[in-house]
Amino acid sequence: VAWRRLLRAPRSRRWTVPVELFVEASTPRRIFQDNWETCITPTLRIITLLDYHGETFARLFHPRVCTESHTQGCPRPMTWVWFRDGAGDCSLARGTDSDTARSDELKDIVVLFLHGGGHWAFTGKSHLEYVSRVVKEVNRRVPCRAKACVVDTRRAPEHPWPAPVEDAVACYDWLRAGCGYAPDQILLAGDSAGGGLCLALLLALRDMEKPLPLCAMVISPLTDLSRTEEQYAEPLHDFLPAEAAVRSGQYYVQGGDARHPLVSPKYGELHALPPVLVQAGEGELLARDSIEYARRLEAYGGSVQLEMYPEMPHIFPMLAPLGLAD
Fold first, then answer.
1. Residue in 20, 91, 284, 290 annotated catalytic
2. Which of its termini does the chain have fewer beta carbons within 10 Å around, N or C?
3. Residue 115 annotated as catalytic
4. What is the mean pLDDT of the chain?
5. What pairing do the DSSP bridges indicate for beta strands 144-151 and 215-219?
6. Who contacts 119 (Cβ-Cβ below 8 Å, separation ≥6)?
């Protein structure tokens, strides 16, 4: 990285030095990819055990954020995220009766966040800084009181499909029946495999004739787990190798039908779904997953906004703390 910067030839001129260092350090070398089970898998499982540091990281960048973890009375372990003033850094000023009345009139919105990790890594706490920014941004753009519910779904290979989909459905039902949220107060969000799980959740809820959420927003979603390593194009600006996506599919499906709509939502019948926002990098490994899903949803008459960002890596909005423009 230092040599490229010295020659004024960075991998991308849109990246800061910390972003380039992160991408370089996170890109597994070929020798490690060839020994995935002995090198990559144990490393990611150790990192997953250190997920609890995510709360400290979130508070470092968002001093007013509040988090609260629950393991009892809910379908899965989850972490709630909100701001003390109810609206991030742009909340109504406290202390006057008119402001209190206005705050009471605000609509409650909950972001049901399903984290990435290939369906087999992380617990969601690693995503708390990004989720905090999502909550802050929802409050900034919409007159509401927003909070997020980050769910720790069961993970493959110990709990392959359909376990994560069942967890997502159970948590959605719990928000409605146990917490009193109406469907139009629930917003789905997720990244990578969690983004694909959000889109699969929409199909599952529709097929079960349950009321659908307000909308969904996903970044770099994994929407097709049926591809082989040879079917992936070499990513131009990414740290995620094709081997990672292929292994995730193997762990998750374990010999089942990788084209099942609740595994790979790209292959589903995408009618009668709420609006979906899809964001991804143009040169990342899963760019095709985003583009093809958005095109199919549009062909089914759905409302979709596809935003492809040049020279951006996988899950790039989560790299904002490293200086990447959010």
1. 284
2. C
3. no
4. 89
5. unpaired
6. 155, 156, 161, 164, 193, 197, 248, 251, 252
Give the mean model confidence (pLDDT) for residues 86-98.
Answer: 40
pTM over 0.85: yes
Please give the Cα distance from 33 to 312 (Å, whole number).
23
Distance from C-alpha of 88 to C-alpha of 135, rounded to nearest angstrom: 7
Place of tokens 């990435």: 116
> Active site residue: 12, 126, 192, 220, which one?
192
Q: Is 284 a catalytic residue?
A: yes
Nearest alpha carbon to residue 12 among 268, 270, 252, 235 = 235
Give the integer Cα–Cα distance in Å for 26 and 286: 16
Residue 293 has pLDDT above 90, yes or no: yes
Tell me the one-letter amino acid at 81: V
| Lowest mean per-residue pLDDT among 18-27, 90-99, 294-303 | 90-99
Q: Does residue 280 contact residue 195 with C-beta atoms inside 8 Å? A: no
- Section 18-38 average pLDDT: 85
Phi–psi pair at 83, nearest 5 degrees: -110, 145
70 is catalytic: no
CA angle 108, 113, 114 (to 5 degrees): 155
